[in-house]
Amino acid sequence: MTNILLVVSLDGGSGAGKSTLAAEVASQLGAAVIHCDDFFDATLPDNDWDTYSLEQKCRRCIDWQRMRNAALLPLLEGKKAQYYPYYSLSSDKGLESRLVTIEPSKVIILDGIYSSLLELTGMNHLTVLVDVPPTLRRHRHNIREGTDDLDWHLRWNPAEDYYFTALRPPTTFDLIAVNN
Q: What pTM did the predictor assign?
């Protein structure tokens, strides 16, 4: 069994550079990385998301129970984690056919916005905000996605803004990594 030294949440808005930072840290430390986007609940259609409050969007967009059971808990027990990510609306139950396998490590990184939610209190040892001005983050998001995707921004930018002002303001993080 692997003795876990550290569980780190790399949090920040879309386009902040969380995944890039997670990959760099993982390559240096041999850390296990859980991509929280793999657990985005893509089974809900956009018109359902639009009925949710900002707080509900923040708390419900990631299937935290599934992420905890399929990825985090096995790694905390020193076991390999295996799961099928969400995203594919055309497949059974919205799951991709690609199996993700994460080997255990002494360092676990939770890579994703909302990864510092209170639902994970006691499971993460260090919360890191990857801080980037919203206009730059949104520009990076558009470049990454290859589109301006106005509908996505109208649906999710207010939720991200709410998260970083009401649920997890910068002062509540253990560390802030500025990424301009």
A: 0.87
